[in-house]
Amino acid sequence: MKTALDILKERGFIEQMTHEEEITKLFAEGKPINFYIGFDATADSLTAGHFMTIMGMAHLQRAGHRPIALVGGGTTKVGDPSGRTDMRKMLTDEQIAHNCEIFKQQLGKFLDFSEGKALMVNNDDWLSKLGYVDLLREVGFCFSVNRMLSADCYKSRMEVGLTFLEFNYMIMQSYDFLELNRKYDCIMQLGGNDQWSNILGGVELIRRLENKPAFGMTFKLLTTSEGVKMGKTAKGAVWLDPNKTSPFEFFQYWRNIEDAKVEECLSLLTFLPMEEVRRLGSLEGSQINEAKEILAFEVTKIVHGEEEAQKAKEGARSLFGGGADSANIPTLEKTRADFADGIELLQLMVETGLAPTKTEARRNIEQGGVKLGEEKVEDVKRIVVLADFENNKLLIQKGKKKFHQVVLTD
RNA sequence: GGAGGGGUUCCCGAGCGGCCAAAGGGGGCAGACUGUAAAUCUGUUGCUUUAUGCUUCGAUGGUUCGAAUCCGUCUCCCUCCA
Interface pTM (ipTM) of the complex? Predict the structure, then answer.
């Protein structure tokens, strides 16, 4: 009988764990385990980066364990220095509270919170109430500054500077674990591998203070083969909020994943059985495109629902397959009156977001990268007029993969 | 608190009175090659009404025909001392 741990291991989630033998035994007993993962509310949406972690939680929940999703309203006020070479921008309390609300809603889509099958907490509830001296006396003596400084998450900051505020982050996170342990009997903390030292802090704190077992595990971080964190683009993160990253863009992100990462992504980001994952991952040459499409579809389905995933898939197929059905690609609505005198193509490209500025749009045209429908645009000063539309639609293509359509609405 | 060093375009980093919209690298974008992949090669990379145009080199005030470059003030960061 496979334990939840076996499943996570088989799918390649696990990077490190604190007490492997004990953890293995614990899972083998089959009793529900209360575990937690924290999400700091640094932005107004979760990202693709969080998604993998959430999948880990979902697998554990499916196996009967109880996740505690912790939203870091309090820790965000401090700012995690892990993996950063500069200090985080300070957010206002209102922004943080706002972000927390959004995180809660989004998390609710991926985990089953009914009938106490999962819990949602906000560490601001207790961290903000801590008294400085009380905290120092309660947990301060458990932390060795020498050891903290040697922790990985602070190393990168030793040269450029680390503020006392950030230095305390580890203590805050450790305190969270202690609090959850006391209140909800939470005995395990998971997180991305960059959280390893923060997690260790909590595990050791509980073991010392409560004299009880506590465990930590970290998940592998998804990176491209160059080692760049996956889920990031030049424009920023790939968001789970459809208003920040449209389902179509989201789909395309995974559709364009590099060959070498297909199997890993299928395994970590979908619920497909492992035999299927391995079969798809072993496809070679252009056949691997089939696997990429399945990956993109499955991930989009989990995040945005089956309907949106289907639309994105069809939209992509028609665009790249040369079909004419462009119903599901990003659209800009315009009225006929807007085109009375025609509109500069440069202007339209900026409005659709295909180019950030007119200069950039001009450059794209000069370099031969812009198409109107089937026509390659040669003239930088091209004016778009009603006659360019077909069935009230006009497709603008920039480069090979960026499409946007303008639709006339009257 | 004292003494030094520094803040340059998305990032790193040169420039130290005109030849600077600012070297080089990274990243991005476009083109070629392809499989909506990777690698490679080429071009490009402040903005606009493309011009002997406009706005940029931490902020501000000055010197100068002319300042990223010199001077004053402010601000932030780093190192050493206390």
Answer: 0.88
